[in-house]
Amino acid sequence: MSDVAFASGGLPRSSNDATALHTDNQLPHYVSGAPFDPYAVERMTPAQERFYKASQWRMMWWKLCRHRVAVVSGAILLTMYLSILVSEFLVPYGLDTRNTDFIFAPPQRVRIFHDGRLVAPFVYGFDYRLDMANLERVYTPNPEKRQTIRFFCRGDEYLFWGLFRADLHLVCPAQGGQLFLLGTDRLGRDLLSRMVYGARISLTVGLLGVAVSFTLGILIGGIAGYYGGWTDILIQRAIEVVQSFPHLPLWMALSAILPVSWSPILVYIGITLILGMIEWTHLARAVRSKLLALREEDFCTAAVLMGARPARIIGRHLLPSFMSHLIASATLVIPSMILGETALSFLGLGLRPPMTSWGVLLNEAQNINVVALYPWLMLPVVNVVITVLAFNFFGDGLRDAADPYH
Hints:
Helices cover about 55% and strands about 15% of the residues. By secondary structure, the protein is of the alpha+beta class. It has a 3-stranded antiparallel β-sheet with strand order 3-4-5, with no helix packed on it. The longest helix is centred in the middle third of the chain and has 37 residues, at about 190-225.
């Protein structure tokens, strides 16, 4: 090119004059000599980096921790399930230990003050008399019978988890005394000890039942959602037929089929299977609706084109995409199974002695006269209510945390 430039008046000038004029009109600026970083604008703080690099499960945990009611409910449930591992150690008496001199004894109050002084926890012993006018046993606390509660002591012998014999208890009554914190039943058995033992059955029924329901719901719902068409139509009509039956009468009918000659363990397994085989319908529909949407996604189409079998596509690609929602839904099914077992046992169609559950304990409180005279026999209801509410609150929090991006 030519080194001649034209001025504004149209006269030619040299390139040196043009460069000098451009330099005089340029604003002063600073140019950094550091290497160019294209991600400088997107750089995050350590807190932001920790959040954006977290896995989905960790984000679910953070969101669940912000749900205070769900956290408290989860702590209650964790305490309950841990207690069933050491039920024999926690209670002062054995499951079938009878105190024949204290039939229908009322709950004893734990005290820590005596004569204005702070002392070790103790209870007052009972004075007993029989009211012939009302045909009622009358127990009166006697302040002269101060019985100090023992801790980490030797008491009734038990077979721990069926492996070895032991007699260590967390709390025990005083030597020659009694400790009935929640009263006794018609055979003089400590109600607190039986409630703790009963939690082992009532709480595990829900877990085993939801395992059966979870398996059936994923299997049947997965087939309906992935294949669609007539398969989906037939499965949905079958689900509607099952859901059309009232649950409690259906439970009662199926429980009545169980042979009377079965052992308590077989009855327990049968009740668990009955509860699980009825509650799978809601979970199957949830799986079906999710698979209908996800089977059209690109990653599912890519798996099909690569020759993956339907079982692998459902198990490795589709189900993990919404497994968190399934877990949250399962936690909401457990309370209904606990209530189902309690109702069946209360009506005498579920578990039977010598097995002990909260429903079996409530079976002894069917008589309104017994409830009016000995209201502490209804205390197992408190355990059922607390457990059901805790599961519902924890399930709600887990369901919200299952979608941490909203």
